[in-house]
Amino acid sequence: MNILISNDDGVNAPGILAAKQAVEDLANVTVVAPDKNNSSVGRRISLFKHLSLESCELEDGSLAYSVSGSPADCVTVGVDYVMDEKPDLVITGINAGVNISCDITSSGTVCAALEAVSLGIPAIAVSLFMDPKTSFKQDKHGEWYMDYDFTLTKKVLHNLVLKIIDEGFPEGVDLFNLNVPSNYESEDVKITHLSSRMLDKKVIDNTNKEKAEIFNYPLDENQETDDLIMITSSLVQEYGGGSDGHALIVEKCPSLTPLNVDMTFKDLKGWKIQ
Questions:
Q1: Phi, psi of 115 (to 5 degrees)
Q2: How far apart are CA 110 and CA 105, in angstroms?
Q3: pTM here?
Q4: Please, are residues 153 and 235 in contact by the beta-carbon 8 Å criterion?
Q5: Distances (CA, A) of 274 to 81, 214, 246, 271
Q6: What is the pLDDT of residues 233-264, one digit of tens each?
Q7: Could you tell me the sign of the dihedral formed by the alpha carbons of 217, 223, 228, 232, in that order?
Q8: Where are the beta strands (DSSP E) in 35-110?
Q9: Rg of the chain's alpha carbons, rounded to an integer?
Q10: Which domains, ranges and CATH numbers included, belong to the chain?
């Protein structure tokens, strides 16, 4: 079996090495990822633009490739140029964050998986939900850092790929969207559906006192400040039962959402435009 791994956090992100480690005993693995962070870029494609493709090393010394483009670009470059033959599976992640609900259409991680599906390759998008209460820690000098623990995510991903090798994808499923909580209460994987949304968004300007620290980031000395605005977001906390958000955030267990890229609503009987 041949697997292509990509992500949106960049080739140097710790999650991509964790994804490779999770499945390298099951398949031949090729890593092609963006040269820098490309979060929330959706399925952006760099058509007819020059891209830089360079070989590099992951932290374990293994070969990887970086692309000066989007996550979707990396999947196309990996499938059509880097790999000698078409992969049997594409894995995107492990994303450090959360990708749930209908908001997944803005996710570079999930949309890289969608790009794979468009090329006729089944895919898995994987994310580790970093619980703000437990994942952000301080060292002895008081400096904040992110405590990545991919243990459960790697285990679930490994078992999922093993099942796919043995049984294939379920009929009608093009890709799986897997989210695993860092602060989990159960290892049992729930099969879920998409929530209606993941983020509450709000536009602020420099008059917003509550978010002044976020808004007042360093600016270019020539930047005009009078007309600046910023879109901010916070994670939705209430989710319906059976949804990905409910499993991940309320029940604190892994969520596996089977997806089909055909978004056509097939029954409009009696609904006509004259």
A1: -65, -40
A2: 7
A3: 0.91
A4: no
A5: 49, 51, 42, 10
A6: 888 888 999 999 999 999 999 999 999 999 98
A7: negative
A8: 53-57, 63-67, 89-96
A9: 20
A10: 2-193+237-259 (3.40.1210.10), 199-235 (no CATH)
